[in-house]
Amino acid sequence: MLDKTKRGWWKSAVFYQIYPKSFLDTNGDGVGDIPGIIARLDYLQTLGVDGVWLSPVYDSPQADNGYDIADYRAIWPVMGTMADMERLIAEAKKRGISIIMDLVLNHTSDQHAWFQRALQSRDDPFHDYYIWRDGSPDAPPNDMRSVFGGPMWTYVPHLGQYYFHQFAPQQPDLNWAEPAVRQALYDMIRFWVDKGVEGFRLDVIDSIAKDPDRKITGNGPRLHEFLRELSCQALREPGLVTVGEAWGADVERARQYSAPDGSELSMVFQFEHMCLDQQPGGEKWDAIPLSLPALKQCVRRWQLGLHGQGWNSLFLDNHDLPRIVSRWGDEGTYRVPSAKMLATMLHGLEGTPFIYQGEELGMTNIRLPIGAYRDLETLNLYAERVAGGYDPRDVMASIHARSRDNARTPMQWSAEKNAGFSPAEPWLPVNPNYTEINARAEMADPDSVFWYYRDLIALRKRYPVLRDGAFTLLEPDSEELFAYTRETEREQLLVVCNFTGGTVPYTPPAAFAGAETLICNYGGLAGNVLRPYEAAMLYRRTAP
Ligand code: TEU
Ligand code: CA
Question: Is 25 touching ligand 1 by the criterion CB < 6 Å?
Fold first, then answer.
């Protein structure tokens, strides 16, 4: 177990993200719940993770699956009770697992008491908790478009005003320029720290300092001022880990967010690598093939750029992204080796890995008819594009490749009915491949993706080079191989990955002749080729 009183403990940690609605249903209503998470803590302990990032469990009307919070200090009754939450924190802690909660500080639900008061009159003290502009019904303040489609402004007739929302109309943006808003949020954070929560993932944190009059959403002028205040007012314990979701982060900004002096956050989720397979400057729905050299350049920039000057998060999956094995691997013949290869590439890097539920099983995307999708972003996209004259078949192809619901199908626990997720009809369909891909089958198979992840996590704990080693990219121009080294004064690590379904000639650098194989998805490198999606880590000690 990691000593979590130590500053920077999270640099040695591996986290696991749970999307609670889809994890495990224990009371037969088709929706995952907190008792379901408690029931699987032993599973997470077997995997070896040090912490869980819990997507929102707060009271919410669920317009955006809990990213629309109606009460930050209450649990959504369908998910459980406050007593369940306290038990989860305690039971996790017993197993060396920290609970990291999702903090949605950019907006609330329109059902939140603050917004309900804000709606009452322009003079209500809560009115200024949100962002309003005067206007008439047919003339919004400007033409800004919401992330989920439609305008960023919604008109309230009895006030003669528009409120601002970067996401759905049910998610009004909080006004961070109002000191009372910030203080109320800090008090709420302390409520959770006092309950034993050991860190936070901060939803769209780079959007809090918006300035709609100048059409600024991300990276607003007061962003880092707000973050430093947040950090010193509400997150002062050095043991707390904080991860900011920052779509607008480049390397330079990430250095500031994750500065070693701890003045802002522990690290951020940045998305440059996740945007490489879409048209430059375009939308995620318009996918293009991944260029491996571009991915390598991107990874290299982040590895070198934050080494000693900040800290990287490492991830390929989350609840907003399609499944990585379907995206950059092969969900067919080579599903197992390609899932392991992608994990090897990621877990060899410097930073803190985050595994998204089901990734450790190699779970894949799903293809549903439009009526079966639940995600508002997907449903809006379909309506918007079809109305705009797109061929519905093309729209469905984009949705099958990119919808957020790809990641949100229920966790596949067993080959039993509904994948063992629930005895009842799940809130979102189970992927029909659960009869083959499920936790029970994988735990019974020593060569499964699950045990490979367990081994990768264990290696990170055993070899300091995985935490500290300096990164060097090899073969930058190869369209087939991703190879790099990590190095400290005492240890050298070589990570080599074949990103293709073909056989590729490869000889490790001479320094690694006779080196120890730490892990390999084919049981060990053979001769001078890499087999389809083969991956390995080779290791040598250079000093005692
Ligand atoms: O995501 C932020 C965000 O911008 C995403 O909606 C992203 O743009 C989109 O998924 C890409 O298609 C966070 C949460 O992770 C997401 O689940 C929420 O819906 C969103 O914030 C609003 O809270
Ligand atoms: Ca339930």
Answer: no
The tens digit of pLDDT for each residue in 276-312 reads: 999 987 899 999 999 999 999 999 999 999 999 999 9
In 3D, which of 348, 327, 347, 349 has the Cα closest to residue 338?
A: 327
Q: Cα separation of 481 and 479, whole Å? A: 6
Alpha helices in 374-520 (DSSP H): 376-387, 392-402, 405-408, 439-443, 449-462, 464-468
pLDDT band at 5 (very low <50, low <70, confident <90, very high): confident
Q: Which residue, judged by its Cα, is nearest atom 20 of ligand 1?
A: 67
Distance, CA 303 to ligand 2 centroid (Å)? 41
Burial letters for 44-53: b for 16+ Cβ neighbours within 10 Å, e otherwise? beebbbbbbb
pLDDT above 90 (res 1)? no
Question: What CATH number labels 113-164?
Answer: 3.90.400.10
The DSSP H or E segment spanning 45 is: helix 41-47
* Whole-structure pTM value: 0.98
pLDDT tens digits, one per residue of 262-272: 999 999 999 99
Least distant ligand from the CA of 84: 2
Domain ranges of the chain: 113-164, 373-408, 466-541
Residue (of 473, 469, 513, 519) closest to 493 by Cα position? 469
Q: Which ligand is nearest to the CA of 284?
A: 1
Q: Which atom of ligand 1 is nearest to the CA of 68?
A: 23
Contact 424, 32 (CB under 8 A): no
Burial of residue 479 (CB within 10 Å: 0-12, 13-18, 19+) is exposed
267 bridge partner residues? 243
Q: Which residues are catalytic?
A: 203, 245
CA atoms within 13 A on the CB side of 118: 25
Fold of 466-541: Immunoglobulin-like (2.60.40)
